[in-house]
Every structure is written in C-alpha cells, then in structure tokens.
Design goal:
Blueprint lengths: L9 H9 L2 E5 L6 H16 L3 E5 L22 H4 L4 E5 L19 E5 L13 E3 L6 H11 L6 H14 L8 H16 L4 H9 L4 H12 L2 E3 L4 E6 L8 H9 L7 E8 L2 E8 L7 H7 L3 E2 L3 E7 L3 H15 L1
Parallel strand pairs: 1-2, 1-3, 3-4, 4-5, 7-8
Antiparallel strand pairs: 6-7, 8-9, 9-11, 10-11
The structure holds manganese (II) ion.
C-alpha cells in the first residue's frame, strides 16, 4: 500500500536548518494535536540547537490540555522578534487560525505544517507541508523530524503519540491506508517508551461528574432530523466544558441510520458549531463548515456564526444538510 505521506519539500528542511531562532505557533482555542505538535516541534528544534519560543492564544479550555497552558506564551517579545526568527505554524488552515499572537509574526518567513482539508495556504511556494490524508499534524511533525535526522526520544514520542491519539479518537477514525502509513510510526513511539494505556488514562481519567451529567443531558435532548440521518444537539451556555462534545459525538454517531451529528454550542460571541460525519457517509463536513466561515476535516469540522440564536443556527444547518442528504 502506498504511503499517504508525500515527501516534505527540501525548502522547508533548509529553512529550518538555517534558522537560529524559531517561533512555533498553532491555532487559538487549541486541541491536543495543535499543542502536542507545537511541543514536539519545539523539542526537535531544540535538539538542533535552535532558540525557540512557543506561542498560543488559548484559551486552554479542554480538561486534557489545561495543564499545558504554562508552557505557552500569549505574545512574542520584541527582543525575540528582533532576531528575525523563522515561524513554524502547525495545525492551521487559514491565517486567522493562530489568532492574535500571529499579528506580530506576519512579516516573518514561515513554514506551515498542517493536515486540514479546507483552507488557504499562507506561506511562500514550497514552504507548506499540508497533507489532508494525515490523521494528525503530529504525524507530519514526525516526518519532518525524520528528515532532519533528529533521533526520537521518549518525551518527543509521547507528544507525537498524544496528538495522533486525540485526532484519531484513539484509532476510531483511521482508514486502512492511514493506518498502514501511521502505525509503523506509532510502533517507533512505543519502542521509545510511550505507553498507550497510560496515555489513554491520563487523557480520560479525572473528569467531573457534573460534566458527564451535562454530556448525558445534551444527548437526552438531541433531535433527529431528515429521517434520523442528521442529529442536532444543543450545548447551553451554562455548560462550559469544551470537552463535553467528545462523548456526545461518540455516542450519537453510533445511532442507527445517522450520517452526521451537529452540536450547536452557545457562546458569548454567537453559536459555535461542531460537525462530525460517519466514516462511510460520504459527507465532507469540512466543506460544509467552510460554507459557514469555518473549516476542518472531511469527518470533523467547526464554524462560529456570530449574532444568531440557536433556532436560527438550527434552521441554517438543516437547510444545508437537506441539500446533500
Ligand atoms: Mn489536528
């Protein structure tokens, strides 16, 4: 089976080798893959003797990433910027995704490493390594590591594994092709000392009972539409935990006849909408989310619509899915 990974452009590797200081930044409102890609990239760069700065706008809402907040800065200081650092942008499909901290970096030379299916490449020719078939950005970071001849140590392998595990829902979303290309890399992470069950427990244990009850309440109030092909869920503003969605999607995507699940979360700025589609549904929710100004992957995507009510968001979404289901 052919590898899902095209080679990384030499111009990217050269830019990294040449740089003496590097800023690493991922998307705002980060998830595990964004942060662990950043952390792994930083370790690779440090192994090469680079001075590094890790940036992320936050907020660090999810239980599984809260503890990482102190490792990231919200803004680049001018003394670091005066060194004309290279910027490595990970897990971002559009220039607005890195958020506020990116403003000060816009004029610097940059490299993009990403796996989103929609978006606009925002680096110079040959400076993007974008592979939508890759299940996580950390897999692409591992390829860059290999190309740069940086050995794998346990800590880096742990970061790379965590990003892969979260973005694949612990292997649920892997196709045969993706697995054939990725699992040999996972084997190298475990050979470096990474324990899959310890990381699974670390990422799932210790949840609050109130959050689990909120998840149950969202599921209890979920609404099947289009003959059950689409299920719409509502996360009220009082349910703050960003991690509730994982349990909601995991349960409802198992429903008979369902093709997609949409979770509408009430936020101060408007409605944050999460989209998930079944592996075999043929529905590309990344494209649907892009139509609402968001983006993502074929099977997992999101968008935020400002200034509308839950009811309005619900109608827009049903109308859009009616066209394709
Ligand atoms: Mn990702």
């Amino acid at each position: 089976m052919a590898s899902i990974f095209p080679p990384c452009d030499d111009r990217i590797l050269e830019a990294i080798k040449k740089a003496s200081s590097v800023v690493v930044i991922a998307h705002r409102n980060p998830d595990g893959d964004a942060l662990y890609s950043s952390l792994a990239m930083e370790r690779i760069l440090q192994h090469l003797g680079k001075e590094t700065l890790l940036l992320n706008e936050g907020p660090f809402l999810r239980d599984d990433i809260k503890h990482l907040e102190s490792r990231f800065r919200k803004e680049a200081d001018d003394s670091f910027l005066s060194k004309n650092p290279l910027v490595v942008v990970v897990d971002c499909s559009t220039p607005d995704r890195p958020g506020e901290p990116f403003r000060k970096l816009e004029n610097l030379k940059r490299v993009i490493i990403d796996h989103h299916s929609s978006g606009t490449p925002f680096a110079d020719e040959g400076m993007s390594y974008i592979v939508p078939a890759s299940p996580s950005t950390t897999m692409l970071v591992d390829i860059v590591r290999e190309e740069l001849d940086v050995p794998l140590d346990k800590e880096t392998a742990g970061f790379l594994y965590r990003g892969f595990a979260t973005d694949t829902g612990f292997y649920h979303f892997l196709s045969a092709e993706a697995a054939a290309s990725c699992l040999p890399r996972v084997a190298s992470f475990t050979a470096a000392g990474v324990s899959p069950y310890e990381i699974y427990d670390e990422m799932h244990d210790g949840r609050k009972l109130s959050d689990i009850k909120d998840t149950a309440s969202i599921i209890l109030n979920s609404e099947p539409v289009l003959n059950g092909a689409l299920i719409i869920c509502h996360q009220e503003a009082t349910m703050m935990n960003a991690r509730l969605s994982d349990g909601v999607y995991a349960s409802l995507l198992e429903t008979e006849g369902v093709k997609a699940v949409v979770l509408i979360k009430e936020r101060e700025c408007g409605m944050e909408i999460g989209f998930r589609s079944k592996n075999n549904s043929g529905i590309d929710v990344g494209k649907i989310a892009a139509g609402f100004g968001g983006g993502g992957h074929a099977k997992a995507a999101g968008a935020t619509i400002q200034g509308i009510t839950f009811e309005e968001a619900r109608s827009l979404i049903i109308a859009r899915f009616e066209e394709i289901i």
